[in-house]
Write a structure and sequence with these properties.
Blueprint (H helix, E strand, L loop, with lengths): L2 E9 L8 H13 L5 E7 L12 E7 L2 H9 L1 H10 L3 E10 L8
InterPro entries: Dabb (IPR013097), Dimeric_a/b-barrel (IPR011008), HS1/DABB1-like (IPR044662)
Protein name: Stress-response A/B barrel domain-containing protein
Subunit structure: Homodimer.
């Protein structure tokens, strides 16, 4: 079972030390240093903000299994990421599902 991890949040720009885009890049760099198997890491703003109810950052990635996901959560770099950016994130949602699904042919 692979695990699709999705995190959504509303950003308090006044609590950031940089622009959103710079923050996204820093988040990507920190995640890249966490030595657990993960793929398809994405961090960014919504393509259509009118449908997001104010959520303006999404982070998604896929882990090979639940144990790897748990190792990611407990890793010191992940905890550093939460400490660094947590104060700027409001109403964060973390959601995991068994993923990715089968690709269908049309």
């Amino acid at each position: 079972m692979s695990v699709l991890h999705v995190a959504l949040a509303k950003i308090d720009q006044s609590a950031l030390r940089q622009t959103k885009e710079e923050a996204f890049e820093e988040i990507r760099k920190i995640i890249a240093t966490i030595p657990v198997a993960k793929r398809d890491v994405r961090v960014g703003s919504p393509l259509n903000a009118s449908t997001t109810r104010g959520y303006d950052i999404a982070l998604t990635m896929i882990f090979d299994d639940y144990d790897t996901f748990r190792a990611y959560l407990a890793h010191p770099k992940h905890l550093e990421l939460l400490k660094r950016f947590g104060p700027a994130l409001r109403e964060m949602i973390s959601y995991q599902i068994d993923g990715p699904g089968t690709k269908a042919k049309l």
